[in-house]
Amino acid sequence: MTQAYGYTVSYDEFFPYVSQFVPSASEFIMIDAIRQAAIEFCEKTFVWQYTVPAIDIVAKKANYVIPTPTDTKSVGPIQVYYDTNLLIAKGPDELADIYRMGDWQQVIGHPQYVTRVIKPEVLLVPIPNDAAAATLHIKTALAPTRNSTEIDSEIFEQYAEAIAWGARARLLAQPRQDYSDKTGSIEALKMFIYEINRCRMQVTKGLTRGSPKVEFQRLI
Q1: What is the mean pLDDT of the chain?
Q2: Phi/psi at 59 (5° precision)
Q3: Per-residue pLDDT reduced to its tens digit, 146-166
Q4: Cα(first)–Cα(last) distance of the chain, in Å?
Q5: What is the torsion angle, in degrees rounded to the nearest 10, for the CA atoms of residue 156, residue 159, residue 162 and residue 166?
Q6: Could you give the CA distance from residue 177 to residue 163 in angstroms, rounded to a whole number?
Q7: Number of C-alpha atoms within 13 angstroms, CB side, residue 24?
Q8: pLDDT value at position 205?
Q9: What is the distance between the alpha carbons of residues 200 and 205, in angstroms, rounded to a whole number?
Q10: Which residue ranges of the chain lie beneath pLDDT 70?
Q11: How far is CA 30 from CA 11, 55, 130, 162, in A?
């Protein structure tokens, strides 16, 4: 994994926060639970943010893949700029209302809006008329992929215990294991949801302070 903040740490760094509650669980099972909890935490909080290197615009090309570091995926764009202009996020139905006289997917001009039809891509509206180097600027939220083995160190340093709650909830919920504990799983899940909501509120407040138009979250 190419780190977005600092260095990376292996998922086994989470073991001290998890293993004491499921002492008989194998390392493979624990790592899988930790990874799945980390994915869910990042997907639901937008806490892991990454500024994509500037993308070249191709004339008459509307859709652009959001590149991300190795073993990460884009949860969804947070801000998209065309040169220095902040593009306004709109859904397909809204764009159809705006461009009532024709098909919004065929309009060519200077981009004003951005939407998504395929999740890893953004689609510019209108379609750029001219090529332009290093003109598309995207900040996106990241999450680990299902085959990742590491996570950014900053996520670990700040949210190791929060993610551990999610891993413990998953492990304790497994049936017919020495460590199975339905009540413990429910309590761990409650704490995991609490940590997700708390982090999401912090991220939302930070984004609101940083930009008056943080509209992408409703498209995700």
Answers
A1: 91
A2: -55, 135
A3: 999 999 999 999 999 999 999
A4: 24
A5: -40
A6: 22
A7: 8
A8: 86
A9: 9
A10: 1-6, 207-220
A11: 9, 38, 51, 15
Q: How many other C-beta atoms lie within 10 A of the C-beta of residue 17?
A: 17
Q: Where are the beta strands (DSSP E) in the chain?
A: 8-10, 49-51, 55-57, 63-65, 72-82, 85-86, 88-89, 108-109, 113-115, 121-125, 127-128, 132-144, 150-152
pLDDT of residue 5: 55
Tokens of residue 18, six digits: 């998890």
CB within 8 Å of 97: residues ≥ 6 apart: none
Is residue 65 helix, strand or coil?
A: strand
Residue 5 · residue 152 · CB < 8 Å: yes
Looking at this protein, which amino acid is placed at residue 142? L
At position 68, the amino acid (one-letter code) is T
Tokens of 201: 């509120």
